[in-house]
Amino acid sequence: MVCTNPEGIMKIPIAKTQFSDRVDAELVKVVRSGWVAQGPKVKELEEKLAGYTGARHAVAVSTGTAALHLAILAYGLTEGDEVIMPSFSFIATANAVVYAGLRPVFCDIDPVTYNIDPDVIETLITERTRAIMPVHQFGMPCDMTKIAQIAGRHDIKIIEDAACALGSLYNGVPIGKTTGIACFSFHPRKTITTAEGGMITTDDISVADRLFRLRNHGDNSSGLSTGKSPGFPDQYGILGFNYRMSDVHAVLGLDQIDRLEEFTVSRNNIAARYNERLRDMDCLQLPVIPEDNDRCNFQSYLLRLRSDAPLSRDELVSRLLVRGIGTKQGIPPIHLQSIYTEKVGRVRLPVTEEVAYDSFFLPIFPALTDREFDYIIGTLRKVLA
Ligand SMILES: Cc1ncc(COP(=O)(O)O)c(C=O)c1O
């Protein structure tokens, strides 16, 4: 839907990127350096991300989807293997599994955190289950303790879809420090962006080695030490891909990663203020703010509209858009997409379906001004009066 504003008051996007002024000069430097493809800036971003998350290895790739695809291949999962995942996710989560010839098995979610429900996971395990793919949805950390216990009991892998979760903490530890593999996206709606891009973290050197090869047609040689392009290898060894990130993209990420903490604190403040100002509205279910050592980065702010609200969710979204407020319906469940019903048949996921059809997003980004914030609150209240 197009976001128009007939009253000419304000037009607020659902998300907004924020680069420092110095990024222009950094971009020009890279463009003029003679090395615009994967090179020193990508390596620097990998080192910074490993440093931030505490992961031993970080592998940059072209998108978050590519990160998920390579994670599956790096674990040697093969055709027909099953991966348990939520359906309440962006379609890329399941697509990556299907690219590798595996079968997604959709699991229902918790109605409060919107993350995969660990109590349901175990009921879905079969002799073909090889991995669980929890999604830290909108940055909310999944219950990784329970998920790790289940994975341990059944000897299956964990691939975290952390596309939205850079900056979030689980038990005080950054998402990305994992016993399995974690995959991030740097799409512009995420907490930091490289325009398009992704990153994979792992502590396992042999997995990291496979990932470095897989992203570059099986070849892990690099011209970084000599400053010259390396020659062709005698043998490529494995069937790889061109999932490389370029230095032009990496320099955008380098501009932002040092500000990740500032961005995350700012997103948390906005989420807390939304919750405070909307607390008395009985027709809304507000997102939870984690306590203790967990932190959600509030990559998105998703609310549910209760069934006794004065208008439908779709009507509410239309009215907000007309008033210039960037919003969207909650994510369409993957298991109801025809390409997936054809593949895996019809499954019933009651919580997923409820949340998908009664939820909507409000704008959240670090540069949101107080005026914009007040306008969003005032408009939402008026529309729901
Ligand atoms: C949960 C989830 N997984 C995977 C992806 C895919 O990331 P990308 O768009 O960088 O390929 C996204 C991106 O929106 C996402 O939200």
Walk me through this protein's architecture.
The chain is an alpha/beta fold and 385 residues long. The protein folds into two domains: 23-257, Type I PLP-dependent aspartate aminotransferase-like (Major domain) (Aspartate Aminotransferase, domain 2, 3-Layer(aba) Sandwich); 260-383, Aspartate Aminotransferase, domain 1. The chain has helices at residues 23-32, 40-53, 64-74, 92-99, 118-121, 144-154, 205-214, 247-257, 260-278, 313-322, 338-344, 350-358, 370-383; strands at 57-61, 82-86, 103-107, 129-132, 157-161, 169-170, 173-174, 181-185, 198-202, 284-285, 301-305, 359-362. Strands 1-9-8-5-4-2-3 form a seven-stranded mixed sheet, sandwiched between helices. A three-stranded antiparallel sheet has the order 10-11-12. A two-stranded antiparallel sheet has the order 6-7. β6 (169-170) and β7 (173-174) form a beta hairpin. α2 packs parallel to α8 (247-257). The radius of gyration is 21 Å and the shape is globular. The two termini are 24 Å apart. The model has no long low-confidence stretch (mean pLDDT 95). The structure holds pyridoxal-5'-phosphate (PLP). Pyridoxal-5'-phosphate (PLP) binds at residues 63-65, 89-90, 92-93, 135, 161, 163-164, 185, 187, 198.
